Amino acid sequence: MVTETPEIYRDHIRPYIVKQREAGRLDWVFNILEGRKEQKDIIYRNPGQDGTTDEAFLLAPDLNWDRETLTSMHLLGLVQRRDIWSLRDLKKSHV
User: How far does Cα 27 stand from its chain's mean position?
Assistant: First the structure.
């Protein structure tokens, strides 16, 4: 088992995410956020306040959920902000 530390995230995980993003492997996320794909599956969308996306997010079913069994429900939460890539990027001011 590996315990992810801030240093591991900074030195290994974040650079990997950057490479994936630059290679277009995260386009599926942006397609959902920008309304080009999977819109019928969106369970909840919060557009944010005052026309900004600082607080905008959406909830969609995760592929692990069969969409019937509530006790096994898995949801995917996606934020509109492009500077938050993982929970590690959240700061005290975000919550």
Answer: 12
